[in-house]
Specification:
By secondary structure, the chain is an alpha+beta fold. The chain has a single domain, classed as Nuclear Transport Factor 2, Chain: A. Helices cover 50% and strands 23% of the residues. Strand 3 and strand 4 form a beta hairpin. The chain is globular and about 40 Å long. The termini are far apart.
Length: 133
Amino acid sequence: MKQLLLSLLVFLTACGEQTNSYPAAENALDAGREFIDACLKGDFTKAKWYMIDDSTNLAHLQRAENKFRTYDKEGRQQLRTASINISEVSDIDTATSIIYYSNSFDQQPLKVKVVKLNEKWLVDFKYTFNPNL
């Protein structure tokens, strides 16, 4: 019985690790697209994976999740199936890009900043709310 419980614990731990690990973005566009798509689908764990982990970004992501949860079932489904419409990718330098986009659900123009930190492309979500950063 002890071995069964230990095996189950190891299995569940391994499964938990796999669900929180996503492929690294190869470039700014990949990171931005993965982040935006995860937010549209309501997968905020995945969105966090592709985002700079700081308190301001986490607070903005929490607000985005709260807003997602305010939609009814049909509204969330429309977001999940919405397509991302990228209108422009502006490379500021070799480690910073701005992605201008909308989605087919609400068509509101938005932008995200993607930066390369420690050889990893990540979204700086706070830029969406304060473009002076």
